[in-house]
């Protein structure tokens, strides 16, 4: 199982490192440069608004499907056609709800028009995720990996032509970006369905009311968890735009830092994508999850710490290098969000384990507390510190929820604290932080900042091996054909 995790993780990381960082930091960031912080801030806020209610699109079906199909693959024949019909109904409910709520809170005609396209894109993305959940549940990780980057790959091509291809003399419009997303998501959803059908002969679609009610009841805990987590992950941009007079600009400033955070987060999220079916399979067969937890933790958490410290210490330089109209506040937001990245990476291991074990009631309690805390902190901090206050609220929320999940996993699974790994992790963090402070001092100003950043980052990688947090001989063992 460890071998399957590492080999598929390597393939998944390879594809995503090729595509997603360039899309987020190259294409998406350049679009914000072209259209400006205010216009992009509106788009970012509306996008966050559509994310808040994607629960109506999914109601937890994706996680439920991944967990169920990975444990009992034959059930795909029974579930797929009926679940697909249910998702069509849910898409209609989602679209109507978001539009009505958007009108109620005061979006004007042009904002509603943009909202309609974003709603449609969310529907396409949701169907892609559902098809991918079936691929993942069947442990077809390579197919899932290809689909996971297809939409971004297409967007890179389309937007590169629009940005640099000289096909138009008009300034870039945010609507072009949204239309390009629609095309890319459409191709992705069709491709995912074709790949799934190539491996499974699925029955024709049919609506089953009783089955739909049963699925909704079973997936309700997943749905609630997704809703709560989405709120404390995406509410910040909406609250910034709605609460402040310069809300669109502040949402744009927040987007500057959030974009880098999202690029790193997309890579870390891949661990959860692979870990969920693997944890579920181990738990079904009553095997220990400790080894897989240790493997994932020794790779993801130290890596997240290294990335977070590097980005925090060079936050102003990174932001200034990417954005034409960056501000000091953008760098501050980015630095805080990258500390959040460490805690979120932790939840991708321990939260996923709890999900695979079916501890949804407990996870929902943690998530609900996180939502309440996040909203209260935002209401207090945003009027005072604006975008920076929203970042602080996220840091506190993510930190406390991560600690709670680690403690619960230790209790539920009798996981022994890996004292050696813990000590090495603390030592590693201290060394990287100290080294970062040293290389960032003024007496190294004869070197450009990006060389200093690279020195820090690659030195940190060397220390991962020197401290034996990651050992080459153990990595080789993971590729052996043993479970």
What does this structure look like?
The chain has 483 residues and is mainly alpha-helical. It has one domain. It is 84% helix and 0% strand. It is built from 18 helices and no strands. Helix 9 (209-243) packs antiparallel against helix 10 (247-284). The longest helix has 38 residues, at 247-284. The protein is globular and about 70 Å long. The chain starts with a helix and ends in a 5-residue tail after the last helix. Residues 477-483 have low confidence and may be disordered.
Task: Give the arrangement of secondary structure elements.
Blueprint: H1 2-35, H2 37-52, H3 55-58, H4 61-71, H5 76-104, H6 109-137, H7 141-164, H8 174-199, H9 209-243, H10 247-284, H11 290-313, H12 315-322, H13 328-356, H14 360-385, H15 387-412, H16 419-439, H17 449-466, H18 472-478
CA-CA gap between termini: 5 Å
Overall pLDDT: 84
Low-pLDDT segments, ≥5 res: 477-483
Domain count, please report it: 1
| CA-based gyration radius | 22 Å
Number of helices: 18
Principal-axis shape equals: globular
Overall helicity: over 70%
Strand content: under 5%
**SSE run:** HHHHHHHHHHHHHHHHHH
Structural class: mainly alpha
For the largest beta-sheet, the strand count, sense and barrel status come to:
none
Strands, total number: 0
Features:
18 helices; 84% helix; 0% strand
Task: Describe what is shown at a glance.
The protein is mainly alpha-helical.
């Amino acid at each position: 199982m460890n071998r399957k995790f590492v080999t598929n993780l390597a393939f998944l990381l390879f594809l995503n490192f090729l595509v997603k960082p360039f899309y987020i930091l190259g294409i998406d960031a350049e679009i914000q440069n072209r259209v400006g912080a205010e216009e992009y801030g509106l788009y970012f806020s509306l996008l966050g608004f559509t994310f808040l209610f994607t629960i109506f699109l999914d109601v937890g079906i994706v996680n439920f499907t991944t967990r169920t199909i990975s444990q009992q693959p034959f059930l795909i024949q029974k579930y797929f056609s009926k679940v697909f019909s249910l998702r069509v109904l849910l898409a209609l409910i989602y679209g109507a709800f978001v539009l009505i709520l958007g009108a109620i809170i005061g979006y004007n005609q042009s904002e509603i028009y943009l909202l309609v396209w974003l709603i449609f894109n969310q529907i396409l993305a949701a169907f892609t995720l559902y098809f991918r959940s079936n691929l993942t549940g069947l442990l077809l990780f390579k197919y899932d990996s290809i689909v996971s980057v297809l939409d971004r790959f297409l967007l890179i091509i389309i937007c590169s032509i629009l940005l640099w291809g000289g096909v138009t003399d008009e300034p870039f419009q945010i609507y072009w970006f949204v239309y390009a997303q629609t095309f890319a998501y459409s191709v992705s959803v069709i491709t995912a369905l074709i790949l799934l059908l190539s491996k499974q002969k699925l029955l024709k679609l049919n609506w089953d009311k009783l089955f739909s009610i049963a699925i909704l009841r079973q997936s309700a805990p997943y749905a609630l968890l997704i809703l709560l987590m989405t709120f404390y992950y995406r509410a910040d941009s909406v609250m910034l735009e709605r609460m402040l007079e310069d809300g669109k600009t502040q949402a744009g400033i927040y987007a500057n830092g959030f974009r880098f955070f999202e690029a790193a987060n997309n890579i870390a999220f891949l661990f959860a994508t692979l870990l969920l079916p693997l944890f579920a399979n181990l738990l079904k067969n009553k095997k220990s999850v400790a080894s897989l937890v240790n493997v994932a933790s020794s790779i993801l958490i130290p890596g997240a710490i290294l990335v977070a410290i590097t980005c925090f210490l060079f936050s102003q330089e990174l932001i200034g290098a990417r954005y034409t109209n960056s501000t000091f506040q953008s760098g501050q937001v980015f630095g805080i969000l990258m500390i959040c990245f460490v805690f979120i990476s932790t939840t991708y291991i321990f939260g996923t384990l709890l999900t695979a074990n079916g501890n949804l009631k407990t996870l929902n309690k943690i998530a609900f507390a996180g939502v309440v805390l996040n909203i209260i902190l935002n209401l207090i901090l945003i009027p005072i510190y604006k975008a920076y206050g929203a970042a602080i609220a996220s840091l506190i929320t993510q930190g406390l929820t991560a600690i709670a999940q680690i403690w619960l996993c230790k209790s539920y699974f009798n996981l022994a604290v890996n004292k050696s790994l813990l000590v090495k992790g603390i030592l590693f963090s201290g060394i990287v932080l100290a080294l970062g402070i040293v290389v960032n001092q003024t007496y190294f100003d004869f070197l450009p900042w990006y060389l200093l950043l690279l020195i820090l980052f690659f030195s940190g990688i060397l220390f991962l091996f020197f401290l034996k947090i990651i050992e080459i001989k153990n990595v080789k063992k993971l590729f052996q054909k043993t479970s």
